[in-house]
């Protein structure tokens, strides 16, 4: 059982708990992206097992009629073992999806090419039913967005959370903010839709709204469970909002990352421990 201190950021250990959380969010007009926690497997057995969990989760989503989709980490379904394992497991998941959308998360820069190659194959094969995450802090991203602009599916633009070498990534926050805005504008100009603004930054969300008004391109807003949830509910009154919801037994390391990345999260954890 996940302790209350972690339940702000993780929906539970079981699919049933994750779907219960999904139902509550749907009642507030917030859609849900479900992610089974797990990554960097070096043996095929756990990678195949998690792929099977996603297959069953997709079946549960479609039976439930909930507004939800899934998001999968490449290293969770075999990329660290071999590109062929990652591809095979993602094919299994995408084939099982039917009418439910499948996102592929992006991990560190060494996985970008393999992730984009598998995304391109699957989103073509599944009529745009697959999406991928792109990180603005990588210097290659401008070229990647040009590649993706003509493809079906969706692209989630995030600032980037991995500590990448300065030779390949922008390290200055102001620079990352600037290129994020540039890439957003490019997407609203060149993409026919399928834009996901993966940000908690109010300035970036406001800029996306302005671009939507200017270009008329469809977009959605994606934010994490436990972060600015009041803003999510408010935005959902007018815009399409998706909450990224992790669940599963491997919650401890994820919870630690969430607590340490923002001062507000650390204060929340401290208050919970102190009972205040």
UniProtKB/TrEMBL annotation:
It holds the Pfam family Pro_dh. Keywords: FAD, Flavoprotein, Nucleotide-binding, Oxidoreductase, Proline metabolism. The keyword Protein biosynthesis does not apply. GO terms for molecular function: nucleotide binding; proline dehydrogenase activity. GO terms for biological process: L-proline catabolic process to L-glutamate. Signal peptide: none annotated. The keyword Hydrolase does not apply. Residues 18-268 form the Proline dehydrogenase domain. Gene3D superfamilies: 3.20.20.220. It catalyses: L-proline + a quinone = (S)-1-pyrroline-5-carboxylate + a quinol + H(+). Its cofactor is FAD. It comes from the Archaea. Its EC number is 1.5.5.2. Pathway: Amino-acid degradation; L-proline degradation into L-glutamate; L-glutamate from L-proline: step 1/2. InterPro entries: FAD-linked_oxidoreductase-like, PRODH_bac_arc, Proline_DH_dom, Proline_oxidase. SUPFAM superfamilies: FAD-linked oxidoreductase. This is proline dehydrogenase.
